[in-house]
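User: We ran a pulldown and think these components assemble together. Before we commit to crystallization trials, I'd like a predicted model of the whole complex to look at. Sequences follow.
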Amino acid sequence: MSKEPVAVTGIGQTKHVAARRDVSIAGLVREAAQRALDDAELTWADIDAVVIGKAPDFFEGVMMPELYLADALGAVGKPMLRVHTAGSVGGSTALVAANLVAARVHGTVLTVAFEKQSESNAMWGLSLPIPFQQPLLAGAGGFFAPHVRAYMRRTGAPDTVGSLVAYKDRRNALKNPYAHLHEHDITLEKVQASPMLWDPIRYSETCPSSDGACAMVLTDRAGAARAPRPAAWMLGGAMRSEPTLFAGKDAVSPQAGKDCAADVYRQAGIADPRRDIDAVEMYVPFSWYEPMWLENLGFADEGEGWKLTESGVTELDGDLPVNMSGGVLSTNPIGASGMIRFAEAALQVRGQAGEHQVDGARKVLGHAYGGGSQFFSMWLVGAEPPDA
Amino acid sequence: MPEVLKAPLVVEFPFTRSLGPVQSAFLTGLRDRVVLGVRTGDGRTLVPPVEYDPVTAEEIRDLVEVAPTGTVTTWAWNHEPRRGQPLETPFAWVLVRLDGADTALLHALDAPGPEAVHTDMRVRVRWADDRVGAITDIACFEPYDGDAAQPTGHSGEFADPVTGIVAAARLDYTYSPGRAQTAYINALADRRAVGERCPACRKVYVPPRGACPTCGVATSEQVEVGPAGTVTTFCIVNIKAKNLDIEVPYVYAHIALDGADLALHGRIGGIPYDQVRMGLRVEPVWTEGGRYPDHYRPTGEPDADYETYKELL
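Assistant: Here's a predicted model for the assembly, 701 residues in total across the polymer chains.
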């Protein structure tokens, strides 16, 4: 028996900001979930199960927050699952929810992901004082910067490429009312003049720290037929993982990422991603990850990703727009960041992305990664159902 | 087999919480010696209050005052109170259904012993002297044989509400790095870097993990590597991290010790930070009593050819 096609019929997110002091964590997830229900024109009673994700419990210090969030998400008396794959969790949460629909376990599933970084300290949570270990570094930027340098060495990319990505993403964010950073006076010169934090990564090439939540309603064909607005259809979805550090790991272009993308393309019948996919919303927490992932995901040959960025192909009006929403570089509620990528892909093929809509977007890839390039999750969504 | 290392690991952080409208009213009420619940769509009163109806999922905001007196619905004796618990002497954990409420609140009951506690016993709030808008504004409950107290008819509106709290969290662990890392750390005491070779793929892991993450087999063959190695990639750290006593800028590098099949991480010194490069040959510099090399410095050898280390970034 074939899988049930999975449709996205509702999308909701909060206006992402540095601190949402007016709401509890429950209030934050509720806001996104209610907006997703409103978009799908459904009520809490229409939801069969809830799948929730967030980054490590250490970040806010609420152990198993899903337990206390059951009321806010209408999950009392229903199945509720928590997914946990570090920064990629928003993507893998959506995929777990989608698989429940695809397997015909549930007809309509609410999936939600969040982070309230203002109540947490991610840098602390990632830098615990483990005995017998040498403290050398704090935070994610220093971890990823050497990999960026390795990419630059491997490809000979000019050192301005990262700033082009940041300048593009921050301008795209200006068109997205939900984005955290709205830098109206952004210029390329400002990006390039911003302080070097972890050379070769500049301040303006790093992601902010945000409070926010994102939610989606996923449903089967019957649910999609009742939906008031066009659905986005999942054409392929996959997750892969590999250790953070192992002999032979390619930190610049991890094998798990390549395998994950290949699986998605196989499911969706994509022979040439560069030709067959209209736009990409990928997880770029540091600007250089755009060209790195363009290669990893098969949109460019090895060593060629930066040329797409440099030549303007990834601009909003380019041939392969990347991070139309403004990306993680403009909005980073860590646990929600993967789901925001997935949701943006769905918004695009539904034609509902507003000012950052890509004309004629029919097939869009959503991508997330997490840990030390350890977890990958991706989905490809389309304007038409699979095998329609 | 030598003894495996162990050490305490304390994880603590003062987390902040934004309360939202309902918890804000509840905790502000406690500050003002008023206990507030919330009314659900079907007319029940939940104490402590929640923001969303557990039955209908509707948002609920109808705050109602209940009495500071109530009835124990169940309990458990706590023989040995721990740090941070409501009372320092043995007490009962109790669920108390306050007069006017339909659900029970978890708190402590001050009682001389378990024989003085029973389900259905009547209790009342003992307020803390210094109240700040926290659950600890109820110091505890105490036995009470009077009538139900009358609520004051508070509206649930406050002029100066508490909107956030600090929730200090602390976890005490005993950490052990395990057999393989213990051997590595012990060898470092003799200023030797000793890894383990995977019997299947022959890769040498430094530090060793006791198992090969690629092959999934146990490793035990000890292999001494280094002491010199090659900088395979690096970044220049310009921001000072809290709790890290290293002057910026400094170079954080991936260093492939000679004979190792993946890089470890270290700081580069003895050379201006802006002259560090991929391929630089380095050796460890030890300080008296240091568990690890303090940093690595250039050996003066010619740089390694990129082809020799490009798989070790």
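Residues 36 and 65 of chain B are 4 Å apart (CA to CA). That may be worth checking against your pulldown data before setting up trials.

User: Thanks, that helps.
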